[in-house]
Design brief:
By secondary structure, this protein is α+β, with helices and mostly antiparallel strands. Helix content is 21%, strand content 25%.
């Protein structure tokens, strides 16, 4: 097994790099999950989440392109905001048109809530329930969101 580490703009990585078996996409976000250390983060206006969406979508889109068929990728944030979590993954699922699926996560020693399949009156793909929402008060940790995605093996 080999690992590649790059310092580059992930949204603009060239496809000439080839395809990867595994990709981790830990995107920049509004950092609400660090609210135990920085309580003021929760006082920011909801519009703050929109600031990150374009970058998050671009990074996930590129990660999907660079993941080989049958490969897996992790999308993660340290925020609670569905606008930066489930909605970003839902957009990737739609763009992939059946070539991408959520792999359900079931951690053995971590208390987690399922991903949301409905937000602000809008239905999201039910498979997003397989993602994880980790709340700080449940595990004495920070908060975060994780979705494991698998690209169809053509």
């Amino acid at each position: 097994a080999s690992v590649a580490s790059l310092v580059a703009d992930g949204a603009n990585l060239p496809t000439t790099l080839g395809h990867f078996d595994r990709v981790v996409v830990d995107v920049p976000c509004s950092c609400e999950g660090t609210s135990r250390k920085h309580p003021g983060l929760l006082d920011r206006p909801a519009a703050e989440h929109a600031r990150y969406r374009g970058r998050q979508r671009a990074l996930l889109r590129k990660a999907v392109q660079l993941t080989r068929p049958g490969g897996r990728l992790v999308y993660s944030t340290c925020t609670y905001a569905p606008e930066e979590n489930e909605e970003i993954v839902a957009a990737a699922l739609t763009e992939a048109a059946g070539e991408l699926r959520v792999v359900p996560l079931e951690p053995a020693s971590l208390r987690a809530a399922p991903g949301l399949d409905r937000w602000q009156g809008r239905d999201l793909p039910i498979e997003l329930r397989g993602a994880l929402r980790v709340w700080p008060h449940h595990n004495d940790t920070g908060g975060f969101f994780v979705a494991l995605l698998e690209k169809a093996d053509r």
